[in-house]
Amino acid sequence: EEIDSDELEVIENVGHGAFGVVYKARWREKFIVAVKTIESEAEKKAFIVEVQQLSRVSHRNIIKLYGAVTKHEPVCLVMEYAEGGSLYNLLHWKKSTSRAPIYTASHVISWALQCASGVEYLHSMKPKAIIHRDLKPPNLLLTRCGTVVKICDFGTACDLKTYMTNNKGSAAWMAPEVFEGNNYTEKCDVYSFGIILWEMISRRKPFDDMAGSPPFRIMWAVHIGRRPPLIKNIPKPIEELITSCWDKDPDKRPSFSRIVIFLNHLMQFFPGADTCLVFP
Question: According to the CATH classification, is domain 5-80 in 3.30.200.20?
């Protein structure tokens, strides 16, 4: 849907997306939305294709696209606003004014299940599966006091080259076959999911010992088989899920359909996932 830029009233700048600034805005004087601006020419082509893809997508764990402004500058996407911010900011809390939010194992299993359901839906799209390619906690947004996960920021790049240039910070979650330049399949998202699950449980940044070094150092480490350290005293089935997801061989990684079945089963042992997070 084409949206008239006059119907948008910017409230505040809320950060930087893959391709430009993201604003919180009021649309048609009532809806609170997120507005993502697209800054450069090269990205506009990718953006148009993306809008077509996104407009076919409808799932509770994927940020909804309401429409786009294409007839005026700056070109932008108008999307669902997630008031809880990113999972990344929640896991790795930096606000000195308040202590880090408290979450439980139930929240982790539920977040993982919601993320897996959203990606399973993308992978089952017809006529052609949508591969996210840049699954990571900064692209997982939270709503409903931290209990609901929404996936955002996929593609706005159809070609990987533009994407890699814009998202140098993704190396820690990227499957080896992607940066090795090999043909990759939807299983590259499963790899990223394994890293994310490890990160939600450990509450550490993957490869944090290489913080501040260039992305190719992490890529090299991953290429030669290095993975984040296993977590002590974690239930075996969860450890096996993580390690099978980040297997070097994409064929050995489980499909998201299998992951969803497994996590659904696990949910029954972890009640309370719909309880709000505690922000001390």
Answer: yes
Average pLDDT in the 200-204 region?
A: 97
Q: Measuring CA to CA, how many Å separate 67 from each of 33, 45, 48, 98?
A: 11, 16, 11, 36
Residue range 13-61, pLDDT digits in tens: 988 766 678 899 999 998 999 998 887 776 776 677 678 777 888 999 9
> Is 247 a catalytic site residue?
no
Annotated binding site: 36
Give binding residues for ATP as ranges: 36
Q: Quick one: which of 280, 262, 226 has its CA closest to 98?
A: 280
| pLDDT above 90 coverage of the chain, percent | 63
Which has the closest alpha carbon to 169: 210, 125, 118, 111? 210
Q: Which fold has domain 85-268?
A: Transferase(Phosphotransferase); domain 1 (1.10.510)
Question: Which token pair is 89?
Answer: 């900011």
- Annotated catalytic residue, options 134, 153, 249, 251: 134
Asked if the model's pLDDT at residue 155 lies above 90, the reply is no
**Domain residue spans of the chain:** 5-80, 85-268
What SS3 state is found at 3?
coil
What pTM, to 2 d.p., does this model score? 0.91
